[in-house]
Design a protein that fits this description.
234 residues, mainly alpha, Four Helix Bundle (Hemerythrin (Met), subunit A), 9 helices, 77% helix, transcription regulation, Transcriptional regulator, GntR family
Length: 234
């Protein structure tokens, strides 16, 4: 009897996780746009699971910052605001600055950084935004892993999916996909050279430069929406 109960709990948890993975993939790939409404009935039907499983999956994605729950309106895909972008890039500056400093001291750094950077270069050539974002995040995560700092790794994990959305938005507004390569060259070089202080500085400069561009872009979009609102009401 106990084994059956435990088995049932494991199965339910696996379904929750699988449903969350499927919805997360749709969000981070751009298949579900920011602001898109999510209904438990439609998701349950599409994924062939119960509404309870979908509800648990949505709670997981809510904790990751990928969706929002609106009073009396249900669930929707989170929209990245200029405030979100500012908070994420300033937080990343601190976390990734420390990570780069520690990674530069790790003798194993070349074995992770070089393959990750090569994958980013290959992704940029495809011009596929999802591949670019995946490779971009993988490179930054490699630096975090090389820091060999469990609490830093855990903290980064809390915002990882939000960082993915942030990177997707940031890379989407680049004039050319190839710019994602040159934007990372100084950071990668300083880590590989083992220069801890330069690596920390490069990581902070990298996140700040890209973050400020994205923040200004989103601020401009928000102003345009605000200016258009009175016209729509009229």
């Amino acid at each position: 009897m106990v084994a059956q109960v435990i088995s049932g709990l494991v199965e339910k948890r696996s379904l929750d996780r699988a449903a969350a993975d499927a919805i997360r993939q749709a969000i981070t790939s751009g298949a579900l746009n920011p602001g898109a409404r999510l209904t438990e009935v439609e998701l349950a039907s599409g994924l062939k699971v119960s509404r309870g499983t979908i509800r648990a999956a949505l709670q997981r994605l809510l904790s990751e910052g990928l969706i929002a729950q609106k009073p009396y309106a249900g669930w929707e895909v989170a929209t990245l605001t200029s405030r979100d972008a500012w908070e994420l890039y300033t937080l990343r500056s601190s976390l990734e600055g420390l990570a780069a400093q520690l990674a530069a001291r790790n003798p194993e750094r070349r074995s992770l950084i070089e393959p990750a950077f090569d994958k980013l270069k290959a992704a940029a050539k495809t011009r596929d935004q999802k591949q670019i974002t995946d490779a971009d995040l993988a490179l930054h995560k490699a630096i975090v892993v090389l820091a060999n700092h469990k609490r830093l790794f855990d903290q980064y994990g809390y915002v990882e999916q939000q960082v993915r959305m942030y990177m997707a938005s940031s890379n989407a507004i680049l004039e050319k996909p190839e710019l994602v390569i040159s934007n990372h060259e100084k950071l990668v070089s300083s880590v590989l050279k083992g220069n801890a202080s330069a690596a920390e500085r490069s990581a902070q400069e990298h996140t700040k430069a890209a973050g400020e561009v994205l923040t200004r872009y989103l601020q401009e979009k928000e102003k345009q929406i605000e200016l258009a609102a009175p016209a729509k009401r009229a």
